[in-house]
From TrEMBL:
This is Ribonuclease R. Signal peptide: none annotated. It comes from Dokdonia ponticola. The gene is rnr. Its EC number is 3.1.13.1. 3'-5' exoribonuclease that releases 5'-nucleoside monophosphates and is involved in maturation of structured RNAs.
Length: 742
């Protein structure tokens, strides 16, 4: 028996030995391996197989495919063909690795993805480089998964289950789940599945169901699915709620004594009519020298949020509140977000303030002060109320008549029960508006870009069903608040940023737009007869503002606004200040919304630390926190966008028999995207569904062209469409094309 075994081993072969050795060396191309280490990775331990490996290594070295930098240690030949980037999986299978310092993305065919998933940070080996065509490569290593949790619908069979994920074409595989790991999931449930393993020879990863979300299509299931898809929580852990509820939120004399007392200064808030967390207020006071004292008062969240506590850890992990179409998922528990930290009318509150002495004629700042305060809000305005004062420029009695005699909408009313509009408040509102307009004009002159994109909002019934669509636009009252918040943010960051030596701080930075994106935007808007002047920064910003003003009220406005915003770089948090391009500020930070943004909490802490004479904080520590906050912000933005898409689909489900006028907002090789003008809902008309001709995509003209009729349907054309399918689970609308408007 022993002799037979030896004969079999001596004649054994290792299949695909060259490829398997090269794969080992590629995966860790920076390291060297001896033959024993390679044998261990190949899981071979008999003498014959080891000799084969030794022989093969010698052959590969002789062919100059590998090197031997040290005796008996082998390594892949170093070259510049290895790159690190983020994988973007395409709808056709395969994907592209986006490498920051490369002009071209690297195409990766489906068979070379090697278990990498969309958004993963990967190392890619480029095996084909072409001057004018796409580079091609193979993923050799997954450096970091974007996520290991996915949302999908579970299909339970006799001996196992699969979760079909909701990621669409971006997730090219289902997740295999053993029956002992499905938890309480029932067939057809929407679930969260966590990846646990992906065996080398398995087509699909193995996972475990961690949460059952409910039945697909049900409202709460879909909203919770959106949050789960981006790893966002929708409730606080019980221990965090308990901790928050035990915080002493009373206003104490000994604490007031440590602060600047501004309770006697006229102070009020202006917020959306349905807001509950009022994190900013304005105060107004005339000084004896004729100047104004303007206070921007911000909820002092850092007074209650103590570093190192479970409450602070939870707030940091969340990093931001999430504003979905039917609810807010707050960064802080309600006792703080809507209670102790909310600057509600007729209540004393701890605040962190930026106070400015301003020239009433020019809005020039003569003096500034930053520090902790205690304030008392005399009144609470909704934006509509402040807007009524600004538009009418009326006396207090006229404002009262408008509010109480139903000459403006009934839901617009003063929140304070005993508060009466008086001339002092009217004057303060009008003067603040006038100063805000001076500051805004100066910003525009300095090169700021004015993005006033229309926001889509829904009227919802008590069951969160959409009954109507309306558009939210920014008016004078909104811009009043915006300008004073910008002022506080700019001056706080300037105050710290100009200190010498350098002090670590959290900045909100915005880089200049990419030249290629600007050129692409110019090409698209040329279809509508618009132009950009890209000669230098000033001419670019001036022509961009002119473009945004010219499209106001036009059918192409939302399309152009969206494309212009996409042209811009993303604003992020960083300890390295490069300024804010869009606002034309050399220094900018986020100081004004600590109830809903953790970076603002960090700014408050650092500002107070430096006011107290503290040394510069750790740049490395705060840079890590900045990166975390930027990443969480992006996830929140994506979830908010998905919730709007979901509600648009839900709204259109009840309008399947209606025809709508829309504008073509995108053209691709598989179909045209159409945005309905009356409600901004966007859907697709697939090329295969267009009757009467066979249409093909023409990339140069952003159009589709009929092969028989030569009819050209192009970006910006107005068309008549009807709903073909409204898929709530996929958050997708398909349209029938009824006709093209002449």
């Amino acid at each position: 028996m022993t002799r037979k075994k030896r004969r079999r081993n001596s004649s054994a072969t290792i299949n695909n030995l060259t490829e398997r050795i090269m794969k080992i060396l590629k995966e860790d191309h920076h390291k060297t391996f001896n033959y024993k280490q390679i044998c261990a990775k190949l899981d071979v331990n008999d003498t014959s197989s080891r000799n084969m490996v030794i022989k093969k290594l010698a052959q590969l070295k002789a062919k100059d495919q590998i090197i031997e930098p040290e005796r008996g240690k082998y390594q892949l030949i170093p070259n510049r063909n290895y790159h690190t980037g983020i994988l973007d999986v395409s709808g056709k299978g395969g994907g592209y690795v986006v490498v920051p310092d490369m002009e071209q993305d690297i195409y990766v065919p489906p068979h070379h993805l090697n278990k990498a998933l969309n958004g993963d940070e990967v190392e890619v080996y480029v095996y084909r480089q072409r001057r004018n065509k796409k580079h091609e490569g193979e993923i050799v290593k997954i450096l970091q998964r974007k996520t290991d949790e996915f949302v999908g619908v579970i299909e339970i069979q006799k001996k196992f289950a699969f979760v079909h994920t909701s990621e669409g074409n971006k997730m090219y595989t289902d997740v295999f789940v053993p029956l002992n790991k499905i938890g309480k999931a029932a067939h057809g449930d929407k679930v969260v599945v966590k990846l646990e393993d992906w065996p080398e020879k398995a087509d699909s990863p193995f996972g475990k169901v961690t949460k059952v979300l409910g039945k697909p299509g049900e409202h709460n299931t879909e909203i919770h699915s959106i949050l789960a898809q981006y790893g966002l929580p929708y409730e606080f852990p019980e221990e965090v709620e308990n901790y928050a509820n035990k915080i002493d939120t009373s206003i104490k004399k000994e604490e007031i004594a440590k602060r600047r007392d501004m309770r006697d200064t006229l102070t009020f808030t202006i917020d959306p009519k349905d807001a509950k967390d009022f994190d900013d207020a304005l105060s107004f006071k005339k000084l004896d020298n004729g100047n104004y004292e303007i206070g921007i008062h911000i909820a002092d969240v850092s007074h209650y949020l103590v570093p190192g506590t479970i409450l602070d850890d939870e707030a940091y992990e969340r990093a931001t509140s999430v504003y979905l179409v039917d609810r807010v998922v707050p960064m802080l528990p309600e006792i703080l977000s809507n209670g102790a930290c909310s600057l509600r009318p007729h209540e004393e509150k701890y605040t962190f303030s930026a106070v400015f002495e301003m020239d009433p004629a020019s809005a020039k700042i003569h003096n500034q002060w930053f520090g902790r305060t205690v304030t008392y809000s005399d009144a609470r305005f909704a934006y509509e109320e402040a807007q009524a004062i600004i538009e009418q420029n009326v006396s207090s009695s006229a404002v009262e008549n408008k509010l109480y005699n139903n000459s403006i909408p009934a839901e617009v009313s003063l929140t304070g029960k005993t508060y009466q509009v008086d001339d002092t408040l009217v004057e303060a509102t009008l003067e603040l508006d006038r100063l805000a307009k001076i500051m805004r004009r100066q910003r525009m002159k300095d090169g700021a870009i004015s993005f006033d994109k229309v926001e889509v909002k829904f009227d919802l019934d008590e069951d969160a069903n959409p009954t109507g669509v309306f558009f939210k636009t920014s008016k004078d009252a909104n811009k009043l608040i915006e300008e004073f918040m910008l002022l506080a943010n700019r001056k706080v960051s300037e105050f710290i940023g100009k200190k010498t030596p350098k002090h670590t701080f959290v900045y909100r930075i915005h880089d200049e737009p990419n030249d290629e994106k600007l050129a692409a935007l110019e090409k698209v808007i040329g279809k509508f007869g618009y132009k950009l002047d890209l000669k230098d920064r000033k001419s670019t910003t001036n022509s961009m503002n002119r473009l945004l003003a010219d499209v106001q009220g036009k059918k192409e406005q939302n399309l152009v606004d969206t494309l212009a915003i996409r042209t811009m770089s993303k604003a992020v948090y960083s300890t390295e200040n490069i300024g804010h391009y869009g606002l034309a500020f050399d220094y900018y930070s986020h100081f004004t919304s600590p109830i809903r943004r953790y970076p603002d909490v960090m700014v408050h802490r650092l500002l107070q630390h430096y006011l107290d004479g503290g040394k510069s904080a750790s740049e490395e520590e705060y840079e890590e926190k900045c990166k975390h906050s930027s990443a969480r912000e992006q996830l929140a933005t994506s979830s908010e966008r998905d919730s709007i898409k979901y509600m648009q689909v839900k709204f259109m489900q009840d309008h399947k028999d209606e025809e709508f006028l829309g504008v073509i907002s995108g053209v691709t090789e598989w179909g045209i995207y159409v945005e309905i003008i009356s409600n901004k809902c966007e859907g697709m008309v697939r090329l295969r569904d267009i009757k009467g001709d066979h249409y093909e995509f023409d990339q140069e003209s952003y159009s589709i062209i009929g092969q028989r009729t030569k009819q050209q349907i192009t970006l910006g054309d107005e068309v008549i469409v009807k709903v073909k399918e409204a898929d709530l689970v996929r958050k997708h609308l398909d349209f029938h094309l009824i006709g093209v408007k002449e």
